[in-house]
From TrEMBL:
SMART domains: HhH1. Belongs to the DprA/Smf family. Residues 9-28, 41-60 form the Helix-hairpin-helix DNA-binding motif class domain. This is DNA-processing protein DprA. The gene is dprA. GO terms for biological process: DNA repair; DNA-mediated transformation. It comes from Draconibacterium aestuarii.
Length: 367
């Protein structure tokens, strides 16, 4: 197990090899360990690698660094999530540029029933802070199983984390450096509280220093972890708008709270709404409507299906959704041991029979 983890970390450290190429390497080599035993000639045959990358892979002295990183992980109670692991965030796995692995620290479920990212300007106003606090308060009041994700930055981000803590909801901060650092340091006390109910996530190894380009990479994880991204206050340019754009590219829902005309830190949200980059919401009722969240007991759905004739596979899916609540199509496929194409046809029939609802992101739940 130790050796396997070392090779997973080493793979993520290869120069010039991102998540897509790394997955190609594993697929063609057969395993993570086998990647490092391939000859240059064999590596060059793998699509996207080429001679330059092949030579860099063979010459990269990453295994000692990976061994050192593994020691740090063990010493500091850090969890490692590789893209083939069952605990790797399933929403993030659907993103084409998902990181090969992520590091986390704390007590979190990255596959929570609902995950919402809340982002915005670092120069938040009282209006923006109140919007965030009221929204998170309503998440708690309506007893949603929900994880609140943000970037631990000043302004809207830290307000989202602190509100989640206040209302006893799990919250995760995605950071742009290794877990051996904390930036900004003024948020250390909040981050420490988050470790009890949520925590910190990063795709950077320890020793990675703060660099502006890393924050863009961080934003793709904030967007990829969530069902939807909510922008609360933003200037015409800023990291929150970048995160919203990334979320849209992942076919995730993007929402924005409108602001007053002329306010500097409302211009970004108003622009998003005007350009159809985000759906306007004013409260949790709007969010529930657009996300298809319903506070109806699951027993209602079961009762309504009692009088509908279902075949064997349809009944198995109904039983599965009755037990689990909501599932991605690939989860249903895995648990049913049937190909996605077959599952898709069955789900369509169940929709026609008015037994289930199809939610954004190929998620299904009983009516």
């Amino acid at each position: 197990m130790h050796e396997n983890l070392k090779y997973k970390i080493a793979l993520s450290m290869l120069p010039g090899i991102g998540g897509i190429l790394a997955r190609n390497l594993v697929a063609y080599a057969g395993s993570v360990e086998e990647v490092f035993s391939q000859s240059i000639k064999s590596l060059m045959k793998i699509p996207g690698i080429g001679e330059l990358n092949a030579r860099q892979i063979k010459n990269a002295n990453v295994l000692p660094r990976a061994e050192k990183e593994l020691d740090y992980i063990y010493e500091n109670g850090i969890q490692l999530h590789f893209y083939t692991d069952t605990k790797y965030p399933r929403r993030l796995k659907r993103c084409i540029d998902a990181p090969l692995l992520i590091y986390s620290k704390g007590n979190m479920n990255l596959n929570e029933e609902r995950v919402i990212s809340i982002v915005g300007t670092r120069n938040s106003t009282e209006y923006g802070k109140n919007v965030v606090d009221n929204l998170v308060k309503q998440f708690s009041a309506r007893k949603y199983k929900i994880l609140v994700v943000s970037g631990l930055a000043y302004g809207i981000d830290i307000t989202a984390h602190r509100s989640a803590l206040k209302y006893n909801l799990p919250t995760v901060g995605v950071i742009a450096h290794g877990l051996d650092l904390l930036y900004p340091s003024l948020h250390r006390s909040t981050a420490e509280k988050m470790l009890q109910n949520g925590g910190l996530v990063s795709d950077f190894a320890s020793g990675t220093r703060i660099d502006p380009s890393n924050f863009i990479k961080r934003n793709r994880i904030i967007a990829g972890l969530a069902d939807a991204t909510i922008v609360v206050e933003s200037a015409k340019k800023g990291g929150a708008l970048v995160t919203a754009d990334i979320a849209s590219s992942y076919n995730r829902d993007v929402f924005a709270f409108p602001g007053r005309s002329g306010d500097i830190y409302s211009k970004g949200c108003n622009q998003l709404i005007r350009n159809n980059g985000a759906t306007l919401i004013e409260d949790i009722d709007d969010l529930e409507y657009f996300m298809g969240w319903e506070n109806t007991p699951k027993t209602d759905a079961v009762q309504s299906s009692l009088f509908i004739e279902l075949n064997h596979d349809e009944q198995k899916i109904v039983d599965l959704l009755q037990k689990e609540g909501e599932l991605f199509i690939d989860q249903i496929s895995s648990q049913m041991s049937l190909p996605v194409s077959r599952i898709s046809a069955i789900l369509l029939n169940l929709e026609f029979k008015n037994v289930l609802n199809a939610l954004p992101g190929q998620i299904y739940k009983l009516r």
